[in-house]
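Q: Here's a chain of 344 amino acids. Please give me its 3D structure as tokens.
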Amino acid sequence: MSPPTRPTAAIIGAGIAGLACARVLHEAGWRVTLFEKARGPGGRMTSRSLAAATVDIGAQFFSVKDDAFRRETEVWLKAGLVAPWPWKLWRVTGGSWHYRHDGRERYAGKPRMSAVTRHLSRELDLESCCRIVSLARDKGRWSLQDQARRHHGPFDHVVISAPSPQAQALVAPHDSPLAEACEAIIQRPCWAAWACFEKPLPALPGVAQDWQAVMFSEGPLRFVARNDHKPGREQQGESLTLLARLEWSEAHLELHESHVANRLLTAFRETLPDAAELPAITAVGAHRWRYAQPDVFASGDAVNQDYRLSTSGLALCGDGWRGPRVEDAWLSGHHLGHALAGKG
């Protein structure tokens, strides 16, 4: 008697949601293949390696509220993949810097945010630099075609953890309810800039010299992080990651990346007490996240439902289905994985 055939799943997108789903299915005995258009796993928990520094260009940290996510975070802590950060957090309001201490648990990847997603991808079959452009169904099973016209499959299930506009393009020819669910999710963009300096930043009057990050109540910026003040990166040179406010990003979505980086650096410089001067810049750049996070207010009831699972064998997960935080994305994929594993 031949052994039972293991269920199969293709997961499009190796961000934290897709990886959380893949791990549950892998541990349940499924054969799982991940397809990622980038060079490696990470999604919005990604980092960029520059000559002088490694800079996080997506999520800068994550917080913990859910018990299941807390247990997972404790595993990462024990493995040395994350550490508390930031605890020296400031806020700029009305042009003044104020120390912010709200007691929230926050963690960053060590030595970079992508350390978490690389850990989650271990032992998994990952096809990187592989952008899936279409799906096809035959006799109840799914095959995928990539940008090079290569075919993959067949699979029993296809999980799409990409942003809702990208997911909609894949499911629309096959599943109208899923396509309509994607259309209901409004995704907002965000510009992320970075700058490396030849010397450490100057001391700021009234601000601790080893400040780690700062939030902004108004202006183009919403968050600035000192990458060399993150866990595991103490030996690299001074660098900043500058995240723009969503409204500013929408208004300047098609601006050239060099102009974006200069505008955000100027905005940061203008917040410094007593017009402190920044050191000479050795590298600068910007990355546009066209679909950075869901608008939970505009999307209404479409968000906060964890995931979507169709009888067709297609499923959707990610932060767009639950909320904008790293924890939301992980829970979405984790819960979908358990739902699928129950079917297997």
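Q: Can you summarize the key feature?
A: The mean pLDDT is 94.
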